[in-house]
Specification:
Dihydrodipicolinate Reductase, domain 2; 2 domains; binds 6-O-phosphono-beta-D-glucopyranose; 10-stranded mixed β-sheet; 37% helix
Length: 482
């Protein structure tokens, strides 16, 4: 790695994200000898901590959230990097304390692991002490706002202090190796490249299913819901990656431009189509892996009825030449039977007439399992060996399993990958301001229509694949969820 002059500053040191993701990812980079010898990790917070308290806190997080055991030698090196800076970010005049801990000539990676209502204050504090100069980068977590209007406000506020080239908006799905692979799979294999359009593809399905519920994030989730939490960002990102044209160059400007073009062309769902094209549900009582589970409502509010969706399915269309006529069915939900993120590309059945009688009307399918059990399957027809003149065909599969081809330990964690991209100043895996804008615009339209028509949330039992209406969305087109 050719960047060796950087420090990390983490705002929101005691928060869940820092403990669960940031400290483990930084530790893992250190364990792989990627972090520079002189790099410091400065945790910012209001706690009245001495260095030792901070070290204990980080070690506890690593013990809890690292899958592997802490390596003694790595910890020795890692702990020397850790510095705590007692600072209330609402008190901008105190940012001198942070300045004292930083060296001017270094790249500073400021990670805002803190709610977005504090962003402006932090930016102001950094600005006040010249900590927003060219060498300074800021990393922001999703969600950026909760609508087009609020996201614009946030982007405007931070834009007063930092240029777009200094802003790294995280969508952790973009750091997943199987998602990064999508571009390479599409564009380096001519069999896919040449057939990746509406001439060959019948439809596409994207499923991001989670087994977990809301895991105590009651306040955040009840205000947000699955559509804003998962579709506005992760699912629209996956969609734009699998539908974008090839970039002119493999760099952040060109890759992000192509994604933006897709987001701009998402077909706005109309009021009269809302029931046909969208379905929302909320988990009720049920069972997963023989464990009895309570309903969302009893988890969140006790008696009152919440109107927040924990499941959403949408039929999406893209208004461009390449994708005209190809529906993209997407669904995501909590408390579904298993954790599974996958993309299914269903090809058209274009068997020449003379072979029609053999085709058993199979559509070739490319199934990409993003997580877990990372793998790629291709479904095709094959002749059953026999001496008989009459041929019989069998639907068969070609498998490519990550676990058989790559060592698990070599598959990087998404935060490792994203933090490293920040160090290198590469924004291609980060979300551009226009991507945020167009995704919110499209999502806002749906949410507004749901409000207008008072769309009902259907209950589904925990451990099932969502409400019945999600099946209808696809079945009315003569297709099925795979
Ligand atoms: C987060 C959402 O962005 O992604 C969570 O806020 C969700 O609600 C999580 O559980 C899923 O991430 P992953 O990497 O486990 O698929």
């Amino acid at each position: 790695m050719n960047c060796n002059n950087y420090d990390f500053v983490i705002f929101g040191t005691k928060g869940d994200l820092s403990q669960r993701k940031l400290f483990p990812a930084l530790y893992k980079l250190d364990n792989k000898k990627i972090l520079d010898k002189k790099t410091k990790i400065i945790g910012v917070g209001r706690a009245k901590w001495k260095k030792n308290n901070f070290l204990k806190f980080v070690k506890k997080s690593l013990k809890k959230f690292l899958i592997e055991k802490i390596n003694k030698n790595t910890w020795k090196i890692f702990k020397k990097r850790l510095i705590f800076c007692n600072l209330d970010v609402y008190n901008t005049k105190n940012f001198y304390k942070l300045k004292k801990k930083l060296k001017n000539n270094k790249i500073i990676i400021n990670y805002f692991a803190i709610p977005s209502n504090s962003y402006e204050k932090i930016c102001k504090g950094l600005y006040k002490f010249n900590l927003n100069l060219e060498n300074s980068r800021i990393v922001l977590e999703k969600p950026i706002g909760d609508s087009l209007i609020t996201s614009k406000k946030i982007n405007k506020k931070i834009g007063k202090y930092f240029k777009e080239s200094q802003i790294f908006r995280i969508d952790h799905y973009l750091g997943k190796d199987t998602i990064i692979n999508l571009l390479y799979l599409r564009f380096t294999n001519s069999i896919f490249y040449n057939n990746w359009n509406n001439k060959s593809i019948d439809h596409v399905q994207i499923t991001v299913a989670e087994k977990i519920g809301i895991e105590g994030r009651n306040k955040y989730f009840n205000k947000t819901g699955q559509t804003k939490d998962m579709v506005q960002n992760h699912i629209l990102q996956i969609l734009s990656i699998i539908t974008m044209k090839e970039p002119k160059k493999i760099d952040s400007k060109n890759i992000r431009n192509e994604k933006i073009k897709i987001l701009k062309k998402l077909n706005f769902i109309k009021k009269h189509e809302i029931h046909k094209k969208t379905s929302i549900g909320q988990y009720s009582y049920g069972e997963i892996d023989n464990i009895k589970l309570t309903s969302y409502n009893s988890e969140i509010l006790g008696k009152k009825n919440s109107n927040t969706e924990t499941f959403v399915a949408i039929k999406i269309e893209i208004k461009n030449k390449m994708w005209k006529g190809v529906p993209f069915y997407v669904r995501t939900g909590k408390r579904l039977p298993k954790k599974c993120s996958k993309i299914v590309i269903v090809f058209k059945n274009t068997t020449p007439k003379v072979f029609n009688k053999f085709s058993n009307s199979i559509n070739n399918k490319l199934i990409i399992y993003l997580e877990p059990n990372e793998s790629i399957y291709f479904k095709f027809l094959n002749k059953i060996p026999s001496l008989k003149k009459k041929c019989k065909l069998k639907s068969s599969k070609m498998y490519f399993k990550y676990s058989k081809n790559f060592e698990k330990k070599n598959i990087p964690d998404s935060y490792e990958k994203l933090l490293l991209s920040c160090i290198l100043g590469d924004q291609s895996l980060f979300v551009h301001i226009d991507e945020v804008k167009y995704s919110w615009k499209w999502i806002d339209n749906i949410i507004n229509i749901w409000k207008k028509v008072s769309k009902k949330i259907e209950l589904y039992s925990s451990g099932t694949w969502g409400p019945n209406s999600s099946k209808k969305i696809i079945e009315k087109d003569g297709r099925k969820w795979i």
